[in-house]
Design a protein that fits this description.
Elements: E1 2-7, H1 16-27, E2 30-35, H2 47-56, E3 63-68, E4 73-82, H3 93-96, E5 101-114, H4 118-125, E6 130-131, E7 137-138, E8 150-152, H5 173-187, H6 196-212, H7 221-249, E9 257-260, E10 263-266, H8 277-284, H9 287-296, H10 299-324, H11 331-342, H12 349-368
Parallel strand pairs: 1-3
Antiparallel strand pairs: 1-8, 2-5, 3-4, 4-5, 6-7, 9-10
Length: 370
């Protein structure tokens, strides 16, 4: 495992780290660009060694990229380094500001080490790294002539566990404690396979529920909407995989039409445009989709869809629609959804959703590899 250090300049983008995190949370990876410094034509003194690191970096033998502006410090798990244009996988400001990039670091995870703590960055990190190509000298904060990225030596592997750390950056301690509780008692490691928006909605709903459950007169509508948001996001991810599998085996179904709020779509559009909950049930009843589903999907998955997924979607739709039209949500309604989603006293519908999605993804891969 190699270690590189790079400086970032907030003048390029005031929320630079968060901008990259947003793409990472949405796509599962993000490109971080080494921007060319204007009026600086210094050649990297260790370019050949740097290129070897670039070529050797992959998902198995990743590189740790330490990113700092001296006030804060982050470390990123880099699985690819390239000189090819990766702006499509990067925050939009690279293109909007016409920034010239020397190389792109493809990041799949990131950890926050220090935030707004210059003394700790200086005394506990920079003072303890060495530079093997510079006679193992320690990092000189002042008066240096370094050209970045800097090849450094440090001993810690920040990504030796299977945890996805980037999902916890900038979260409050209450948020992290609540997420840990949900992982421990409800979802286990599978919590990190949820979409970031889903996790946020679930955690915030749980915090709000715990703070208000002793007040039965409270309006629980906001909690209902958070539960609804999380499940709609996960159902969308599930049905995209299902329709991809069905469509690969029967491309004709991709032309089947449907309508959402007066706008006309075909099934192939569903991969780019999230429909409402009722659309899934409508599509599953279409003859060609239903027959393809019946013929190629394993029986246990079919049973889960008909007896659990579609049935719960109707429950969710009914409760949500009532509260969207001005009715205050009761504690009983909130707890009904909470029990089903989290699996309190019963099987978790969210866990079922994740398990089916994993099975369908495996079936898709088998189909593509035939």
């Amino acid at each position: 495992m190699h270690n590189l250090l790079i400086l970032y300049n907030p003048k390029y983008q005031s929320d630079l780290i968060n901008a990259h995190l947003n793409v990472l949370r949405e796509c599962g990876e993000v490109a971080f660009g080494k921007v060319q410094v204007k009026n600086n034509d210094m050649t990297h003194p260790f370019k050949a060694q740097l290129e070897k690191i670039y070529s050797a970096t992959n998902e198995k033998d990743f590189t740790q990229l330490f990113i700092t502006d001296y006030a804060s410090l982050y470390v990123a798990k880099v699985v690819k380094i390239t000189h090819d244009d990766c702006a499509m996988l990067a925050p939009s400001y690279y293109k909007e500001k016409d920034l010239k990039v020397d190389s792109w670091f493809i990041i799949t995870d990131m950890r926050e080490i220090y935030r707004n703590d210059f003394e700790s960055v200086r005394d506990y990190f920079l003072a303890n790294i060495t530079m093997p190509l510079r006679d193992n000298h320690t990092y000189a904060l002042y008066g240096n002539n370094y050209v970045y990225p800097l090849i450094i030596k440090q001993d810690q592997n920040y990504f030796e566990n299977e945890v996805l750390y980037y999902k916890n950056i900038y979260k409050t301690q209450k948020y992290l404690d609540t997420k840990e509780m949900l992982a421990r008692y409800c979802f286990g490691k599978s919590i990190d396979t949820l979409m970031s928006d889903s996790i946020d909605a679930l955690v915030l709903a749980e915090i709000e529920y715990l703070e208000n459950k002793e007040n039965p007169l409270n309006d629980f509508s906001a909690i209902i909407m958070k539960y609804s948001k999380s499940m709609e996001r996960e159902f969308y991810a599930l049905f995209k995989v299902l329709f991809a599998y069905l469509g690969y085996n029967n491309p004709g179904i991709l032309s089947i039409g449907y309508e959402v709020q007066g706008l006309k779509y075909r099934l192939k559009d569903i991969f780019e445009h999230k429909p409402n909950l009722g659309t899934y049930n409508y599509l599953m009843k279409k003859d060609e989709i239903a027959s393809t589903f019946e013929n190629i999907v394993p029986d246990d998955i079919k049973n889960s869809f008909s007896e659990k997924i579609l049935e719960f979607m109707q429950v969710l739709k009914d409760i949500r629609n009532e509260n969207m039209h001005g009715k205050n949500a009761s504690l009983k309604e909130a707890e009904e959804l909470r029990d089903i989603i989290l699996g309190i006293g019963k099987e978790s519908i969210l866990t079922i959703c994740l398990e089916i999605k994993a099975r369908l993804n495996a079936l898709c891969k088998e189909s593509y590899n035939r």
